[in-house]
Write a structure and sequence with these properties.
The protein has eight helices and seven strands. It binds zinc ion.
Length: about 200
């Protein structure tokens, strides 16, 4: 279509999730006409994200240090862990202001079709965190879709025998969707109305 760098940029942008060919072209030409300083800031931010952002050694959330902001916060209740699929779900639950415990980010959900099993997720790390008896409640806040449900069922079976109270978000969340798409009122209600998994 185009020559050289502009086509390379359109191709790169088109590989991003949620960016179709038309959007890729629009963003590319927007950048072409933007101020050099703005484009440089974007470019350096992209590089910084790869160099500086790490994953918390405790919970798996994104962090700029060994441990994330939430794990470092002594005011957060260490007896409750909210299990989510992705770091963006931590943000979604934080927005509700309903939760004062800690998190555990699995890094995905069980999906046999995509070849993702429990060993591909941070399940072993979760069990290690549960071993010393500090945690008394686990809230399974995986996505309200097939993979999220399968993951929650798997974890509940694994953890309930350890004597830890396991709960699942209440219904009311848009079924089949992502946690991040739920508005904070709905998600907050689902969190406070969580049901114990027996
Ligand atoms: Zn953390």
């Amino acid at each position: 279509m185009y020559e050289g760098a502009i086509q390379d940029l359109i191709d790169e942008l088109g590989r991003l999730p949620g960016v179709g060919p038309k959007s890729a072209q629009r963003i590319a030409f927007h950048l072409l006409s933007a101020e050099p300083a703005d484009v440089e800031r974007l470019a350096s931010t992209l590089i910084r994200v790869k160099n500086e952002v790490r994953f918390c050694r405790i919970c798996g959330n994104v962090a700029e240090a060994d441990e994330c902001r939430i794990c470092r916060d002594a005011r957060r209740d260490p007896s409750v862990i909210c299990v989510v699929e992705e770091p963006k779900d931590v943000v979604a639950v934080e927005r509700t202001r309903e939760f004062r415990g800690r998190y555990h980010v699995l890094g995905g959900a069980i999906s046999p079709i995509d070849g993702v099993g429990p060993d591909d997720l941070r399940v072993r790390e979760l069990l290690t965190r549960l071993a010393d008896g500090t945690v008394t409640e686990l809230i399974l806040a995986t996505d309200p879709n097939l993979e999220g449900e399968a993951t929650a069922t798997y974890l509940a079976r694994l953890v309930t025998p350890m004597g830890i109270a396991v709960s699942r978000l209440a219904s009311g969340l848009p079924v089949g969707g992502d946690l991040e798409y739920a508005d904070e009122v709905t998600l907050g209600r689902a969190l406070s109305g969580r049901r114990r998994v027996e």
